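[stage:ingest] chain + small molecule (manganese (II) ion)
[stage:ingest] validated
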Amino acid sequence: MKYAIQPDVVSAHNDKLASDLNRDFEVLGEQLSRKGVDINALTEKAQAFDIAVPSWGTGTGGTRFARFPGVGEPRNIFEKVEDCAVIHQLSGCASAISPHFPWDVVDDFSELKAHSDSYGLSWSSVNSNTFQDQPDQAQSYKYGSLTHTSAAVREQAIAHNTQVIEWGKKLGSDTLTVWVGDGSNHPGQQHFQRAFERYLDSAKAIYAALPGDWEMHLEHKMFEPAFYSTVIQDWGSNILAAMETGERCKSLVDLGHHAPNVNIEMIVSRLIQFKKLGGFHFNDSKYGDDDLDSGSIHPYQQFLIFNELVDAEHRKQPGFSPAYMLDQSHNVTDPIESLINSAIEVQRSYIKALLVDRTTLEGYQQDNDALMASNTLKGAFNVDVSPILAMARFRKNAAINPLATYRASQYREQAAVARPDTGGSRSGIV
Ligand code: PSV
Ligand code: MN
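[stage:predict] done
[stage:export] C-alpha cells:
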C-alpha cells in the first residue's frame, strides 16, 4: 500500500508522545472503570468509526464575494485522492471519499479506482450536480432541474443522475445523493404543489435506475440558491419525497440546512423511527448554511445528535445504518487540517454519546426527573475523551497528534511545488 506521508514521519512523532498518552489513557481508564465503563471497548468503537470526506472539501472554498486559494491545492480528482489519503493516514477515521459529478469526472474510472485502492481508500455516496450549467449542456438549470416546468430540462437532469449512478458503479459506491437548488425567488413565481409533483416524478424515474443494493439519499435545504421557496426545503418535504419514491430512498441531514435553533436531534429521531435516516453531511453553522468546521460552534448539538444515533444502535433499531460524511467549506484554513480536525470532532461526539448511561437516563425519563436526565447527558458530554481518540489512532498506526505530524511532514509545502497553479478550475465551493 502507498502512503501519502512517509510512515516514519508518523512513527517518529508518535514515539515522542506515546508514553504521555499511555499515562493519560490509564488515568481516564481508571476513572471510567469506577463508572463501570471499559475504556478498551470504547477505544475499539473509536477505531471502528469512519466518516467520508467530500472530494470538494479538499480545495479552499469561498463566499460569493471572493475566494482566496491556498497553495498546493488539488487540481483534479487524482490529487484530491492524495489529500484524502493524508487525512485518513493521520486521523485513522476517514477511509472513504464522496465524489461530486461532473466536477470529478475522468476518462478512465478504472485508473481512478486503482489510484484510490493504492492508498486503501474507498468511495462512498456519489453526488449529482444539477445546480450549475455545464458548457456542453443543451438545457439550462436557471429555473430548476428535476422540478423544471420544461420536460426537456427534467429529462436532462434525470439522465445526469442515472449517468452518475453508472460512474458510481465503476468506483464501487452504493449510494446516490441528490440535492437540487430548485425553488423560487419571488412569491407567485412557482406553483408549490405542481413543482413538488414534478420533483416526485423525476425522483421516481431516477430511483427506477438505482441498482437493487443501492440507496438514494435526498438532501433538504431551507434556502439558497432559491431565496423565497425551495422545493425540498425541510425534513418534512424530504421524508414525504423519500416515502413516495421507494423503500431504499432516504433522507440526508446536512446540519447547516436548517434554521438557527431548530432541534435537529429530534428530526434525526423521527427519521430513525420511520427507517428513513439515510445519512449526514456534518458541518457547523452560526447563521445559515455557513459550512463551518464540525463541532466548532455547537459541539453540544452534535453530541445530542449522536445521543440519538447511539440510542438507535443500542436498541438495534431495524434498518438503521446511516452514512456519515463531512460537507464543509474551508475559507481561511488549510482544508486538510480542517477535515482532519472535523473528522475527529465527529468521532468525539460519537464516543461521548457512548458514555451516556442509558438505563439511568431511562429511569429519570420515566420518573420525570428533568434535571437529572439533563445532567446524565451533560455528564457524558463533559468527559474529555481525547486519550481514547488518540489511542484509537495510535493503535491504527495513525497519528497521536495529527495536526503537528501533518505540519512536520511539510506535505503542503511539497504540494505547492508539485502542483503549480494552472489557473484552471479548482475544487472548493464558491
Ligand atoms: C448544498 O449546499 C450542499 O450541501 C450539497 O450537499 C451539495 O452537493 C454540496 O453542498 C456542494 O455544493
Ligand atoms: Mn450537503
